[in-house]
Amino acid sequence: MAPEISGFSKLSKTEKIKWLASHHFTDDTKAAEILKRYWNTDKKLQQLHDEFTENTLTNYYLPFSVAPNFKINGKRYTIPMAIEESSVVAAASKAAKFWMKRGGFKAEVVSMIKVGQVHFSYSGDYNVLKRFFDNIQPELYQASKHLTENMVKRGGGIRSIELVDKTNELKNYYQLHCTFETADAMGANFINSCLEQFALTLTEEAGKYQPFIETNTTLDIIMSILSNYVPNCLVKASVSCPITDLPETEDLSAEAYASKFIQAIKIAEIEPYRAVTHNKGIMNGIDAVVLATGNDFRAIEAGAHAYACRNGKYTSLTKAWIEEDSFHFSIEIPLALGTVGGLTSLHPLVKLAMQLLGSPTAEVLMKITAVAGLAQNFGAINSLITTGIQQGHMKMHLMNIMNQFEATKDEKKQLISYFKTTTVTHAKVVEALKKIRE
To answer: How far is Cα 293 from Cα 369, in angstroms, rounded to an integer?
Structure first.
């Protein structure tokens, strides 16, 4: 067990690694070497990465890939994706190419409203509180003007501030429910700064409000924080084509393919066990783009899954249906993304990813990201209802298995050729490699 340590964050990076290696690893020299191996030789660039977070020891790599051939609203894109799961980029690329020949993807942003709340407790009469709020509401806007001025110039700002009574769910609990538009910024810092100003103004004005003074009633601010549940920061994406343009296999006609595909989506709509895995596949595509563009994938994940159960039951984020002999497939998902601020203007690869996408606005990035999720879901469902998920997945996983056993370039070439016509399993790869080496 490692000893307690004080002032760890004040140690140099080398000192941190030395302490960690000596107390947590049997081979402290090897552990230190592995950590240092991932340092960037450009000291200025490495310092930039070190300062992204606290107690940085080294860099953790994820593959930075691209999926080409996406046609979105008539414009072609090559989409950057940062992800380690081997089949994701391949599936997205395949889906992009399939739909490019059928008109491409359509996408639209429905709204870009984000939410933040000031949570507080109050034990007095609600009607008194309501009159107080109505009186000071203009002051809440005015007191935060120094924070909102630049955002308003960019088309954003505070959209509403409402008093919400939640005492039927939690004793004495009220909130200021506030909505914002943050233009091309994700807006977390802006929203939180506004909320903290609201809380300060609320407290100051309450201290001067005569009805509160007379009844010895106070407001107690609990916390002020944005919400990652953004059901009104919403984007839709879709594809459609005549049923006859859908894939055909030996076992499935185009009509049967459409029927089976729609049935697979309907299962995800009603069966939570399937819906979670179904939506995880969607998020494979979405998270990869969110990471590559320096956005907060944890916030996106939380908001998406909350949206999936907005009606009281966890369900699919995508829908599929037939209309007038045409197949339709769509997604509706909340995506609070930004293209300015945070890592977007700091991380060199993020800046490169943004350039790759044509320096998009937040609205355009929302569309691109939703499309990546829809494409990924199409690829997954396509595999599930035809060959099964493992055939393609395991062929992509073959490289990982070969690297695990340190296969040489020539061995990899032989194995790849062999498994073109053989089902990939871990045991079979080991067996085939053993025969090559014998």
So the answer is: 10
Amino acid (one-letter) located at 335: L
Q: Are the C-beta atoms of residues 176 and 198 closer than 8 Å to each other?
A: yes
Cite the active site residues. 85, 280, 296, 393
In this prediction, residue 390 carries a pLDDT of 59
Q: Do 308 and 281 form a contact (C-beta atoms < 8 A)?
A: no
Q: 109-145: per-residue pLDDT in tens?
A: 999 999 999 999 999 999 999 999 999 999 999 999 9
Tokens of 217: 């009633």
Burial of 61 (0-12, 13-18, 19+ CB in 10 A): exposed
Residue of 80, 106, 75, 103 whose CA lies nearest to 93: 80
317: closest CA among 332, 299, 295? 332
Instruction: Compute CA distances 73 → 186, 239, 371, whole Å.
Output: 23, 11, 11
162 and 178 Cβ atoms separated by less than 8 Å: yes
Q: Which residue has the higher pLDDT, 311 or 432?
A: 311
Would you state the structure tokens that stand for residue 74, as one six-digit string?
A: 């008539």
| The predicted structure's pLDDT at residue 234 | 98
- Residue 314's alpha-carbon distances to 248, 305, 414, in angstroms, are 32, 8, 46
Closest to 286 (Cα-Cα) out of 399, 185, 370, 225: 370
Rg (CA), the chain: 27
Contact partners, residue 106, CB within 8 Å, separation at least 6: 72, 73, 237, 238, 239
Q: What is the pTM of this model?
A: 0.89
Question: Measured between alpha carbons, how far is 248 from 38 in angstroms, rounded to an integer?
Answer: 47
